[in-house]
Amino acid sequence: MSGSTRNKFGFTVNRSRLIDYDSSDRLVREYITSREPSFRLCFACGGCTAACTAGHHAPFNLRRMNTLIRRGEIDPLRDEVTRCMLCGKCLLVCPRGVNTRNVVLLAAEAIRKLDRNEL
Amino acid sequence: MSVASKHVVVAGGGVAGMEAAGALAELGHRVTLIEKEQKPGGHLKQWHALFPDRRPADEVRKYLSRRIDNRNIRLFTGVGVDKIRKEGHELCIELSDGSELTADAAIIATGFDLFDAHRKEEYGYGIYDNVITSAELEDMFNTGKITTADGRTPSRIGLIHCVGSRDEKVNNNHCSKVCCVTAVKQAIEVRQKLPGCEVFCFYMDMRMYGPYYEELYRESQEQHNVNYIRGKVSEASVNIDNRLVIKVEDTLAGRPLRMELDMLVLMVGMEMSKAGTRLAEASGLDRGINRFLETGDHHYGNNISHLKGLFYAGTCTAPMNITDTISHARAAVAEAVRYLNTR
């Protein structure tokens, strides 16, 4: 459908890359933070992402995911969050003691609920 | 102590000057402490609470008042120091009222000026009512009322780090050191006084260099839910509802971000003071590329000027916090006393 539109008119409409904090949806953040308060403590060092085996083979970046969840940007994460293999190596390296494994589990759970309008 | 009493002039009655005067008087020297304002105390006079422990600033003010309550100290207020020159073994201190003092040694403690936020036009200070400086937020803490210009309680406040610091556009490449931790402190205070108000800090780096600063940063996230966004705000404007709108790149997400705010606080940095600049120029004192006074040696002589008998204390040499300022003033006194004893 979008392909034929592109062919017909010769242009596409790009979605804005802007994060509009006032229109973004922060339900997932609240869901995670209320159940795993250590989520707030991430200061984006990237230790989790460096240690992550899944991230070496697939697009999965926990550091970036944490930031996007906090800004209410959920759409880019739907596929990404399923790539974690829950090995827990990120947990071992986190200098702020974030329960990263639980954050991933809760993020997947919250997104599932969000899509079913259960949040 | 067998030291004969000497006369030392201290230029500037802020934290460094008061501590230096007190320490010299304690050692038996006669001190003339000169403050250009009507009261000593410097910038500390307007501060409500201090980082990292949020103790009342009044406690340190009282300590410094006791420190200069000494019969060896003469306090001149409402008069500045125009020029210092060497005459033989002595220093001649020219004052702004036209009088002149002779001293065996002198300490310059003329401190810093806060960066004038008007110079970062893109943040709209002086244009939009709800763009204020960190010093003005501190005034609000003093009065106990944190409100927007039209008297409403803000529901979202943003704090911009590095306003006038680390910024070639305003000719300040230096870091002012204390603004990061001041932002963390003020963010916590806002969250405590207005629990319904979201607080966002926009930072380039979090420079938590002092003892218990990093712990305070962690506390702000863990217990007070302060939000941090890494990125330098590029501009502020207002929308049709007269609410502030800021543009920033969320550099950790790698995407631009916009956000509405009720109040924007600019964390203004430290610059060499205008009074200190005039004194340095009139007296022929060297200054560094950051425009602060250049010391004899950055590692082991940072109280020393190139004029024998003249010493530096505090933020006239570089941005520093109160703890370091007091230590630096004591070190200046040690250097001055060594000079007086050996000449």
How is the secondary structure organized here?
The complex is a heterodimer of chains A (119) and B (343).
Chain A: H1 2-9, E1 19-20, H2 27-35, H3 47-51, H4 53-57, H5 62-71, H6 89-93, H7 100-115
Helix pairs in contact in A: 2-7
Chain B: E1 7-11, H1 15-26, E2 30-35, E3 49-50, E4 55-56, H2 57-67, E5 73-77, E6 81-87, E7 90-95, E8 100-103, E9 105-108, E10 112-114, E11 131-133, H3 134-143, E12 156-163, H4 179-193, E13 198-203, H5 213-222, E14 227-230, E15 235-238, E16 244-250, E17 255-261, E18 263-268, E19 270-272, H6 274-283, E20 310-312, H7 322-342
Helix pairs in contact in B: 1-7, 3-4, 4-5
The biggest beta sheet of chain A is recorded as: none
With strands numbered from the N-terminus, the spatial order across the biggest sheet of chain B is: 5-2-1-9-20
Helix share, percent of chain B? 25-40%
Q: Would you give the CATH topology of chain A?
A: Fumarate Reductase Iron-sulfur Protein, Chain B, domain 2
Q: Biggest chain pair contact, residues each?
A: A-B, 19 and 18 residues
CATH superfamily of the largest domain in chain B: FAD/NAD(P)-binding domain
Give the overall shape of chain A, derived from the CA principal axes: globular
What ranges of chain A have pLDDT less than 50 throughout 5 or more consecutive residues?
1-5
Oligomer: heterodimer
Tally of discrete structural domains of chain A: 1
Quickly give the CATH architecture of the largest domain in chain B: 3-Layer(bba) Sandwich
What integer value in Å does the Rg of chain B equal? Answer: 22 Å
Q: Which spans of chain B have pLDDT < 50 for at least 5 consecutive residues?
A: none
Largest sheet of chain B: 5 strands, parallel
Number of helices of chain A: 7
